[in-house]
Amino acid sequence: MKIGIVGATGEVGRMMIKVLEEYKIPIDTLKLFASKKSTKRTLTFKGKEVQVEELTEDSVKEKYDFLLFSVAAQISKIFAPIAAKSGNVVIDNSSAFRMDKDIPLVVPQINGNLVKNYKGIIANPNCSTIQMVLSLYKVHEKFGIEEIFISTYQAVSGAGHKAVIELQNQLDGNNETKVFPKQIAHNVIPLIGDLKNDNFSEEEYKIINETKKILNDVTIKIYPTAVRVPVFYGHSEAIVVKTSRPFIDISKIKKAMEESQDVIVTEDILTPIDAAGTDFVFVSRLRKIDNNRFSFWNVADNIRVGAATNAVKILMYMVGLS
Ligand code: 2RA
Question: If you measure from the C-alpha of residue 12 to the centroid of ligand 1, how many angstroms do you get, rounded to a whole number?
Answer without folding.
Answer: 11
